Amino acid sequence: NHIMQLPAIIILALATALCPPVLALSNVPYCQGVEFHKSHKFGIASPVHSTPSTIPVFPPFCLVPLQETTCSGLGLSFECFEAYKKDSPFGSGIRMGHFIVFLALNMIGVAFLCSYYNRTRRIWQQSMLLFTAFYAIFTSSFALCRAVWMLSRPLFIGAALHNLFEWFILIQLFSNTVQRQKMYVVRAVTFILAIISLVSLVPNLKAVTLLEQSCGVMLDLGLPVMFSQKWLLEGRDLYKYPAIAHGIHWMFTILPLIFANFFVGEISWMTTFGLEFLVYVSTPITHILYLNWSVGFDEEKRAIQDQDMRRRHISRDEANTLENGDVLERPGKTLAVCWIIGLFFLVGIPQYVLSPCPPNNFCTADPTFYGTAVVQVYPGLEQAFEDRLEKYKLIQKGQSASGNIEYQFTRSLSNPSQYRFFEVWSSIKDVEAWINSGIPSQVFREDGPMAFIMNGTIEVAGYQKPYPGSCKDKAQLGFHVEVKASCQQVWNVVTNFKDCSWIQGCRYASIDPKNPDLRNLSMTDGSFVMEKLLYVTTDKFGYQRLPGDAVLGYEAVVSKTTSTVTGTGCGIGFQYQLHKGNNWQEQVEAMYETQQRDAIPYIRQLFANPGRWVDRQFRVEIVNGFIRYKALSSVHSSLASAARLNAPGNVSKVEIAVEDRHRALAHRWFYIVENPQRDAEPAREILAKNFSLSLSGIRINTFKAFQDWLKGPADQAKASSHVMESFQIQETTNTTNGAHELKMVVTWNGILRSNDEHWIAQTEHTWETIDHADDNFARIKNLKVRFLVPFSPLINEARSGDQETSCIFHPIHAKENTTTLVAHN
After folding, report:
1. What does the pLDDT average to over 245-261?
2. pTM score, two decimals?
């Protein structure tokens, strides 16, 4: 019955193993994996797939040295070696996988503890079941420690407790009586307590790692060797399941964990996903096999004990627990050989098989600590300050201090009143000893040179442990540009998340209706880019460009400062951070080239004229708005169809379908009217028979007349945009033929073909429509337009030479793009 649980455990293990790739490919821009987010097109939700080909299948086959660091979690911090990169593409998934393994093993162990409690309370009659249940529970602690504190002392203590219960399993197989089992259990506990003490007290973390792992590997390899010998060579079926279980444990749990330590920091499918996958799958399988076997083992052991007690009239503790042929013989020799073999995997492979990775492939921290300080003295007191330092021999004492590598004192050539201290120390303990010696505080006490120092303060950068660029997971780049505009003007444009006019190649920005911190950028090359707003302050604007097909993902910070060149303009700083994926150096160089060649000149030109960016913002919307209307028409058509499918007996859904059908019609009409192709053919499916249109003072009732109007009066604007300010739909009294009346207030923006001027108007539309379900759209029967605000040029006060820009206009950002999609998306 217990073995029937195995498929469920395998399914759980596979689900656990899928955590790293699923979370990695759905969340992390670095790996360029499958990104599930809003489609870049028109704010419509759909998955966008980018290729995971940027992740190599295999890592470079070289040794990545373990770097000691500090791991923190659950309110505790420990010295550790990284077992995996938390901020790698698979980092969050690996942590989640560990936590699920932790829960799964606890569930397995607790379930069998309950089985033990229900069977008997006599420990030694059900000892194998009890030990294997705790074996699963203590193995779970190993998973938790590796997830939180990685290769640290808590992990090694958890591993020692894991090994303790492996000793308990082994003891029952080579000790044939309960008396001997109790004696060896005491010895095993003593041995493991000694290991735990050494793990806790030995200061060298590498020595601790080798100590515990070598003892653990001895057991993890020795057990399957001994079990397999009894099962395969001697035909003892008692050892079948433990041989399989521990063989799986050695091959697919222990070896992957050992190999994973050789490639920490290398991102590949084999090391970062494949090895972890094997661990997640094999661990629950191992323990469910052990636990199911332990039930039968205890029952057979009790039967043998009862038979021996009756035959020899002895106590249960003295009775045999195994048949003579089932007892393991001379396990000590086998374990000694396995300990030597284990050292080959732990020491031999990294020392003699794998050569060290080149310096660029891993992060090597500089062991020294650097400190800097800047002192600005009052003019004229420079010599007094230097004499004070010479009196106390500060430089000489610093250079002779224990652990000091360099202690320098320099004076600036460009600013003679400024001095710099530069220090290099062997370790942080040497730094602390120097500070605690009292020498620096003696020299810089208040009645000394502090009176010479400007404002009585020393600019201290502190002591830091430098890391080379290879230690950083993100590459940084940036540029600075000066523009002839006030910082307030610049900031109003840059921080307006609905405006992308300052981004070269951006046609317009559409705000995500469900998340105002997300926007889709439509680019002039036909691509779409998604960006996420991170923060906005008075002088900084942070956003993230999400990666997609052929789109490089990065985080950006835009900052503003008063121009250092002219003193009247504005300086704009751009800082970018991108993850170091494959070919990241080429990506950085390409970004620098693009910024220098295109972005900087574009931004300078954009802000050269105070009214230029306002005009451009409107013109981009006007020129390209018709593309969006076509998409919105399709959206509302789909929504109407969906509502009608679910409408039987539901009046509200019928009304929703009618409204969406008419919104689709309106967007289709504006798409046709605004399309610069001036193609009248698409209008055939939205015009009813015997239609009548009143446009530009002209009455139109034939398709030829409509075509002439589209290519004549309507073409006086080379580009135009319509924004529906209000939308009302109601049935007319004649409902038998699907007649409705639609009223809209529409704001019009256009660019005249004759003089390229930007004009505006506002009108009231009244449409009579006929809506038949068989048609793709509701059809226009009668259309009348009444002017609320006549055609007039846009008044842009900035063109008059004012410093600040203020414009009188109706908003270009279509309300339909936000309110409608919020309601129906």
Report:
1. 89
2. 0.47
